[in-house]
Amino acid sequence: MTVPRTTPRTTAPTRRRLAVLAAAGVLVASASACAPTSDDAGGGGAGGGATSGGGAGWPSGDVQIMAPADPGGGWDQTSRAIQDVLAPQIDASVEVYNVGGAGGTVGIAQFVQNEGDAQQLMTMGSIMVGAIETNSSPVTLDEVTPLVRLLGEYEVIVAPTSSPLKTIDDLVAAMQADVGSVAIAGGSAGGVEQVLAGLVAQEVGADPAQVNYIPHSGGGEALATILSGSVPAGISGIGEIQEQIEGGQVVALAVSSPERIEGIDAPTLMEAGLDVELANWRGMVAPPGISAEDEQAVEDALSEMAESPEWQEVLEARGWDDQFLAGEEFETFLDEEQERTRGVLQELGLVEG
C-alpha cells in the first residue's frame, strides 16, 4: 500500500514546518461525556478494565470505539466509517460513542481507564497531539497503545454565500488590510484549522497571533456557524463540508492540498501564491496494558480493513487520503509528531517556549 509523503520538503522554511502543523490543538470548553456503561454496551465499558481473550481470538466480544469529540466532526465520521467496515469483517458488534472536550484530552483521560481491555479502541489524530501539549494534559499518548494511522484529510477554506469574500484573493486582500477584521470559524482553538489560518496570515504578511479565529468544540458546531453566515469565512476538513460545497451552501475559496481536489472547484493555496500545504491525519489506539498478542491481532484486523475495497471506497467518497502506517512505523511517526508539534506551536505563538 502506498503511503503518501509525510516528511516536509527542505527547500523552503515554511514548507519545513507544514508536515507537523496538523498536529496542533489547544484548550476548548469541555463537553459532557456520553460513554456507554457496561450495562448498555455489552460489557467492558469505559473504566471497566476487562481483559480480552487471546490475541489470535480477537475480538473476544463486542468492540467499542471512542470518538473523543462531539458528533459530526472528523473523529466522529472516521469512527463510524470504521464501524461500518470493521464490524462485518470481524463478525462482531462494533459500537461508537462520543466523549467531547478539550481537543480530545477529556476523552483520552477516560479512555486510559480501560487498561488491558483490547475490546476498547479510540480514534485520534493530529489535533489530540497538540491539545495534549497546549493543555498540559496529565494524560498523554505515552499512556496508550498506538495501533495504526489510517488517513489524512486536507482542509478547505470556505465562505458562506452571503459573505463578501468570493475568492481566495478576496480573503488575502481583507487579511492584508486588517487581519483582525476577518472572523474565521473552525474547530478546536489551536487545532488544525487555526494553524492553517495562522499560516495564511503569516504568508500574507500579517501577524498570526492577531487572526480573529472563532473556535468550536468540533466540526459539527463550526459547520453550523459557517452555514449561519455569521462569519465571512471558515475552515473545515474537506469530508466534513463537501456536501455543503456541492449543495451551494458555501463557496470553496482554496484547499490546503498539494494538488486540486476532485469535485471541489477551488485552487490550492500554492496556486494562489501562498506557500502552505497542510493535512490532518487520523489513527487508532488501544488502552495501556494490552498483551503483545492482542496488540498484534488488533493491528492485523485494522490493516486488513484498511486494505479492503470497502475502506478504499470510504476514502474515495469522503476525499480522505490513504496514509496507512502500523506497528513500529506508526509509533516512530507519533513520537516525531509530538516533538515537532511543540516547536511549531511555539513558533506560531500558540504556546509559550
Indicate the topology.
Blueprint: H1 13-21, E1 63-67, H2 74-90, E2 94-98, H3 105-111, E3 120-125, H4 126-134, E4 145-160, H5 168-178, E5 183-185, H6 192-203, E6 212-214, H7 219-228, E7 233-237, H8 238-246, E8 250-255, E9 279-286, H9 292-307, H10 309-318, E10 321-326, H11 327-347
Parallel strand pairs: 1-2, 1-3, 5-6, 5-7
Antiparallel strand pairs: 3-9, 4-7, 4-8, 4-9, 4-10
Helix pairs in contact: 4-11
CATH topology of the largest domain: D-Maltodextrin-Binding Protein, domain 2
N-to-C order of helices and strands: HEHEHEHEHEHEHEHEEHHEH
Q: What class, by secondary structure content?
A: alpha/beta
The CATH first-level class of the largest domain comes to Alpha Beta
Question: Rounded to an integer, what's the Rg over CA atoms?
Answer: 20 Å
Global morphology = globular
- By DSSP, the count of extended strands is 10
CATH superfamily of the largest domain: Bordetella uptake gene, domain 1
CATH architecture of the largest domain: 3-Layer(aba) Sandwich
- Number of helical regions: 11
- Strand % is 15-25%
Average pLDDT rating:
84
Biggest beta sheet summary: 10 strands, mixed
Spatial gap, N to C terminus: 38 Å
Q: What's the helical proportion of residues?
A: 25-40%
